[in-house]
Design a protein that fits this description.
- With about 240 residues, this protein is α/β, with parallel strands linked by helices.
- It is built from 10 helices and 9 strands.
- Strand 4, helix 6 and strand 5 form a beta-alpha-beta unit.
- It is globular and about 50 Å long.
- About 45% of the residues are buried.
């Protein structure tokens, strides 16, 4: 699909910049929390978030499979039910670990969402996770321009109906070999450090190109020339004033 058509299929607000795991900070607003999502919505920034499938096939919003880093308590998302997570774990700011349904209810399409599919590589639930997520999104989102799906795993993205949603392949320095699969999807989301190489600098000319994670002026200045939108955290929001 031509880049011009891809751009027509997404909410223009995506091009302003995307709040990585919500608009969180180092002073108490935790990543992938209700507070971070409210903060992003209040500042009119699109939200990037991470989705896992629990033991009972529910969709939970958290970056890692392990709960330790953000709750200070041991546990594996895929080995627990959503109720077990809700009843026994709290984020470091004492909020509940949110489900995707709760986040969609909270945001209400006030800003668009970048949903990262985080499959369990042990059970290889790539397709199941993707289909469960699409099913929920279909029920709760009126305008499909408000959703972009991203993943490091082509197996997950390929389960997303391309006629309905924009699918973007995540690529970092460690898995740069995956860039060869870029033609299968409508866009790429590149680790900013890759833009030091000419091969990746050319990406923006042909396809929707996002960049992550931008968290200082060095990465901001490198990526802004070669990407259509930056996924960021800990930055002065005035850097994005010239956007939508």
């Amino acid at each position: 699909m031509k880049k011009s058509k891809v751009i027509q299929r997404i909410n223009p607000l995506f091009l302003k910049g995307v709040a990585h795991r919500g608009l969180h900070n180092k002073e108490g607003i935790i990543e992938n929390s209700f507070s971070a999502f409210k903060n992003a919505t209040n500042h009119n920034f699109p939200i990037e978030l991470d989705v896992h499938l629990t033991k009972d096939k529910q969709l939970v919003v958290i970056h890692d499979s392990t709960l330790k880093r953000v709750t200070n308590k041991d546990g594996i998302v895929e080995e627990l039910t959503l109720k077990e997570i809700k009843d026994n774990y709290r984020l470091l700011n004492d909020e509940e670990v949110p489900s995707l349904k709760e986040v969609l209810e909270l945001v209400k399409e006030k800003v668009p969402l970048v949903i990262e599919l985080k499959p369990d590589t042990k059970t290889k639930n790539y397709r199941e996770l993707a289909l469960k997520t699409v099913s929920l999104v279909n029920k709760m989102i009126k305008d499909k321009k408000n959703i972009i799906f991203i993943s490091f795993y082509p197996q997950a993205l390929l389960a997303i109906p391309k006629k309905e949603y924009i699918r973007v392949l995540l690529v970092n320095k460690a898995n740069s070999y995956a860039y060869i699969a870029r033609h299968l999807f409508e866009g790429v989301d590149l680790e900013y450090i890759l833009f030091k190489e000419k091969k990746y600098q050319k990406s923006k000319k042909k396809r929707l190109t996002l960049a992550w994670t931008i968290e200082d002026l060095t990465s901001f200045n490198l990526a802004k020339e070669y990407a259509d939108s930056l996924t960021f955290q800990y930055l002065d929001l005035s850097l994005f004033d010239n956007k939508l």
